[in-house]
Design goal:
- The chain has 427 residues and is α+β, with helices and mostly antiparallel strands.
- It has a domain of 111 residues.
- The protein contains 16 helices and 15 strands.
- The strands form three sheets. It has a six-stranded mixed sheet with strand order 2-1-6-3-4-5, sandwiched between helices. A six-stranded mixed sheet has the order 8-7-12-9-10-11, with helices on both faces. A three-stranded antiparallel sheet has the order 13-14-15, covered by helices on one side.
- α2 crosses α13 and α9 packs parallel to α11.
- Bound molecules: iron/sulfur cluster.
- Iron/sulfur cluster binds next to α14.
- Iron/sulfur cluster (SF4) binds next to α14.
Amino acid sequence: MDYMYSGLILVVDLESGETEEVDLEEEFIRENLGGAAANLALYEEYKDRDPMILGSGFFTGTLISGSALGIATAKSPVTGKVAHSPLAWFFGPELKLSGYDFVVICGKSEKPVYLWLHDEMADIKEAGELWGKDTWETTDFLRNELGDDRVQVLTIGKAGENQVKNAQLINNYWGSGDKFGFGAIFGKKNVKALALRGMGELELDDPEAFLEKDMELLGKVKESVSGKKVEWLAEKAGISLEGLDPFIHRNTACFNCPLPCRPYVKYNEVSTVMSSTRVAEPGVLVSDLYGMAAFNKKLDMEVSLRAIEKCCRVGIDQVVAGSLIKNTELDDVLREIDSMVPGESDTSDIKPWDKDFDYGAFGSFCPPLTDDWKEKVAISYILGICPILLSAVPELSKEVLVEMINVTTGWDTTVENLDSVVSKLIG
Ligand code: SF4
């Protein structure tokens, strides 16, 4: 594949400890475009080897707004079906630029390991001393060990190690779009973490035309999202943010996104302090509004936010933990979350999303913001553009996205072709 991808699929065999590089063929991308559709095709190909697929979308890591998405695909311990979890923040771009567009993780390692992908090199490394550490400690350890603070880490906490059904993959320190218990799959495979660093570059068929069209598009995108932040998203999702404002330090956004819907909140120091202080861990990133709401139904806001930090550290789904919680005092709440980690709590009836809506194989990372939610999310998971942004910006239409595919590749693909890839994903 000459354009838009680095050109390699990495197949990791945890049984033998070997890795194999497979060329990413243009025909495969023409058929599947990328992201969740390509993941699904790879899942089918390696089905007999209990795979988890991590993949990047067609536009992931480019200048197109919101191109932050990577996607994990596997058989979910929560639903028992194949599902797709979006991994935002900087995971997708870092994966693609590490030299590997897709990673197929097969089998199970005998001992705890972590995977280190960088500059078209893939190492399987021992992780014995990492096993038992929480996700924050793991991220710090790996960045220190690998000598780069910009290493992106996908990891599990004790919930994943113990294969708790609703264990979540944690994206550096924060909760991810994994609503399907993929953290338990890492645990089952004895994989503590995946560390990524990418210095790669992407080739385009017509970079000048792409830049011109993208600049034009960016102007429209900025107009559409002007003033939209977490308040907009919460209102659309029907979630109250009452009591959150005093804790908000800043509104943050994922890679190349003009809609900063993820507030970073402080509770260990005054939220308005902007400069670095001696407080090493001043707060947490609110990345799952449904999770925050699940806690905030029973707890005051500060306890809810501290409970979110605890969920991130042990790597458990925030909606599930928030639904199970019975105590209200902080110390009791934190102890109660710890008690969920060995997997003794019965979560069989609890959905990891807090709405009566059929999220199917996609999960609740993107609330139902538009009537054509399923199609929008499918396009987003295939092309690697965040579904929240795609829902907020009508100008990011199928026609425009297909035009951009053609400008970047020199193809003459059509909206009908995109539709047929989408229908492979949603049936
Ligand atoms: S809309 Fe929000 S979740 Fe999506 S890429 Fe932007 S900041 Fe990230």
